[in-house]
Structure formats: C-alpha cells, structure tokens
C-alpha cells in the first residue's frame, strides 16, 4: 500500500481524535444581549436547594447591552443570572455548548424585600434561550404544567409530565431537576414513588447535585420510618433549662411538633389534653416542640393554652433553614405527631390525630 496514503490516513485519524477530545473538553459559552441594560455586570450563580445557598461561579461585563461568559461545568445545571445595576434576575440551563440568551427588561416583575433584611430587584419575564437542550426541555415542562392554582392538581400535572419524560430520557439532567423541584414542594410524596422514579435515572443525570440531594432525602426519610430509633435531642424549656428526649425512656412518648402561628396545631390542643389526662397514669408522656422562631410568641401561646406536659422550643442554627429537630422528620408541614415506644423507637409518624389515638388505644386500652 502507498506509504503516502497510509500517512495521510493516520494524519486524518489523529485530527479526528483530537477534534473529538476538544469537543469533549469544551465548556460552555454563554452569549447574551440585554435590552434595557446598556452597561453593567452579570453574575452567574449555582443554587443548592438542600442548603438554600448560592455560589458565585462567574462574572462578565455588559457592554452596549451585550456580554459573553465562558467556563466549564461538571454537568448541565440550571443557573441564576443577575444583572447590575438594578438586580435584574433570570435563570438559564447551561450545558458545555454554545448557548445564546436574549433578554428584554420591559415587563419585568419588581420586588422589594428590604423590610425583611433582604434586597430589592426584578425578575426578568422576556427571556429567550437557544442552544441548550436542557433549557428547552425544562421550559416545555414549565409551560405544560402551569395553569392550575390547586396544589394537588399542580402536583398531579407535574408527575404526569415527569414520569414519561424520565422513561424517554433517563440520562437527562433536566429530568432529575424537574423531579427535585417537584419534591421540594411536595415532600410528603410517597417514598416508594420517589425511589421508583430515582431508579430510572442513568448516566449524566446520576452525577448531578440534584440526584445526590434526592438520594440524601431518601436516606433521611428511611431513617425516621416506624421501627427505627428516634434521634435523641436536647432543647430548651420555658425556664431555659435543658430537656433531653432520652430522659423519657420507659414511657410511651408523643412528640408534638406545633407552633403558635399554626391554627390546626392549636385547634388540636383540647384533644391532646383529654388524651394526656386519660393516659398519663399509664406511662404516657407528651413532649411539645414548637416551631416558633420568636421566644415571646411561644410564651404567649403557652400562657393561653396552658398545656400540662413538657414544652420545648426548636432551634434555627442555620439562617434561612428549617428548625433543627422537626426537619429531621421530613414531614414538610405541622402539626406532626411522632409516637415512640418505651425504648425510643418510632411507632407512628403522622399529621393525623386519629393515627395516634388508635395506636394508644391498642397499647394502653380505651
């Protein structure tokens, strides 16, 4: 065979391999035009819904209403874009490909949270993105699942979209993001349903922060299923002395998660007074854990309700995060009642009074 021909083939092959390698190592290039912001700066941020924290990843200058930003992502990710001056915000699903975004500040939704110690700004409404398959998929999801104001209808519509989407595109990062945002607002989703959907993901979807966070949620929910030991905790009582849950070992204990501002919680108190009077002589105790962030609100409610059992107040050690103890139980709402056996194992975890009543009648008689 002609040596020159073999050399040419080898050279072409090397160039092809090199091109593939360059394509695989290439990052994102976000090119944008902004009508209404001539000059300023744009910041790219990553958001972790589990910790509720933002991380700045990149910045670029806006000149004459245009900007370009480049970088490299581990996986596609839905990012925040914030423009200053004015604090104009939007989101874009970036991938390691060229992506274009066209923005018009007209018609934006303005907000002012300064009285809450936060900032003011505007959410951009006229935004068009091209080049990102993940963004197109997520945009389609949002468009086809909005429209209803009823919570159950919204969740049902979302799952009706998510299930076939994951079946069709199991490696899609947009798919696992859809599920993670759905779960964020529907954390009482049956655990088996969540696990079945998670088992369908493959490839790149499983490498994401979204998948990892959902896996952690599953592990934490499994840890508080009936049959497991309740995690011990120590909280302050009204007189600022410390109460530790394990000090109640040897009794059946109901942990009552409530708050002064929770109407159904307070409406249930007369019932629990009757239950407590009926069973306290049979080795039963109640430990109330309030979700109040303000001590005075809690004290005022206790003065009104006059609950004759143990009262404690939950802690908020991390800003913008749920209270420490109640968040362990992955229920999403209060009231929440957790009944423990004499060893501290979970017997019942429910927001329904009747579930506790039935179990106590079974254990201690009518």
TrEMBL record:
Source domain of life: Bacteria
Entry GO terms, CC: cell envelope
Primary location recorded for the protein, binned into one broad class: other
Keywords in alphabetical order: Cytochrome c-type biogenesis, Disulfide bond, Redox-active center, Signal
InterPro entries, per database record: AhpC/TSA, DUF4369, Thioredoxin-like_sf, Thioredoxin_domain, Thioredoxin_ResA/DsbE_sf
Cellular localization per UniProt: Cell envelope
A GO biological-process term: cytochrome complex assembly
The Thioredoxin domain, residue ranges: 224-365
Signal peptide as annotated in the record: 1-21
Protein name: AhpC/TSA family protein
């Amino acid at each position: 065979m002609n040596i020159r021909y073999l050399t040419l083939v080898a050279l072409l092959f090397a160039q092809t391999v090199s091109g593939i390698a360059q394509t695989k190592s290439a990052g994102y290039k976000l090119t944008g035009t902004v009508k209404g912001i001539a000059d300023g700066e744009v910041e790219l941020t990553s958001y972790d819904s589990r910790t509720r924290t933002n991380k700045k990843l990149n910045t670029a200058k806006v000149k004459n209403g245009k900007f370009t930003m480049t970088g490299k992502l581990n996986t596609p990710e839905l990012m925040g874009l914030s423009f200053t001056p004015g604090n104009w915000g939007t989101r874009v699903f970036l991938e390691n490909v060229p992506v274009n975004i066209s923005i018009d500040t007209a018609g934006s939704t303005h907000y002012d949270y300064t009285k809450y110690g936060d900032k003011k700004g505007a959410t951009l409404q006229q935004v068009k993105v091209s080049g990102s398959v993940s963004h197109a998929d997520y945009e389609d999801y949002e468009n086809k699942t909005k429209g209803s104001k009823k919570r159950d209808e919204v969740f049902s519509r979302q799952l009706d979209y998510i299930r076939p989407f994951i079946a069709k595109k199991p490696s899609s990062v947009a798919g696992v993001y859809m599920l993670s945002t759905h779960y964020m607002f529907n954390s009482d989703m049956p655990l088996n349903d969540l696990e079945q959907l998670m088992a369908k993901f493959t490839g790149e979807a499983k490498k994401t922060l979204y998948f990892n966070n959902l896996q952690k949620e599953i592990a934490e929910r499994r840890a508080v299923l009936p049959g497991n030991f309740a995690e011990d905790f120590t909280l302050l009582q009204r007189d600022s002395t410390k109460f530790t849950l394990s000090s109640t070992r040897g009794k059946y204990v109901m942990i009552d998660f409530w708050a002064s501002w929770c109407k159904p919680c307070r409406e249930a108190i007369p019932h629990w007074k009757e239950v407590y009077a009926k069973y306290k002589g049979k080795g039963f105790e109640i430990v109330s854990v309030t979700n109040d962030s303000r001590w005075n609100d809690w004290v005022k409610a206790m003065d009104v309700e006059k609950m004759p059992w143990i009262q404690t107040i939950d802690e908020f050690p991390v800003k913008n995060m749920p209270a420490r103890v109640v968040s362990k139980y992955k229920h999403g709402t209060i009231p929440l009642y957790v009944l423990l056996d004499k060893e501290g194992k979970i017997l019942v975890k429910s927001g329904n009074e009747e579930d506790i009543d039935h179990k106590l009648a079974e254990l201690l008689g009518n």
